[in-house]
Amino acid sequence: MRQLALVAALLLVACTMQRTYERVSQTSITNYEGHVVGHREVLRDIETNEQFENVVDYTPRYDSTGKLIGYEEPLPEGVLIRTPEGRRIGVRYRDLRGRGVNPSGEGVSVTYPPTQK
Fold this sequence. Notes:
Elements: H1 2-16, E1 21-30, E2 36-45, E3 51-57, E4 59-62, E5 68-75, E6 78-82, E7 88-93, E8 108-111
Antiparallel strand pairs: 1-2, 2-3, 4-5, 5-6, 6-7, 7-8
């Protein structure tokens, strides 16, 4: 009985260990218009040296008139807003506190003004 408990505890510890990945390379994915619509990254497991490819597609973002203003890269805490050229111009955070009042709300968006030349 004691050995069974020890084996169960070891299995539980083994299942909770998180893998650590290192980014080997990242390349942008562009469409026929030259807009950056995603990226492809190659990740490597530090323990096993196994490599795999992860492709992230960006979601188009339009203003109220229907004009494309950029793309949204999904992140765990929200989205990163990018220009069609791929530059970072803002973020949108998912705020779960307002879901009771505004269930269809996308969250708070913060955009950076363009730099003056």
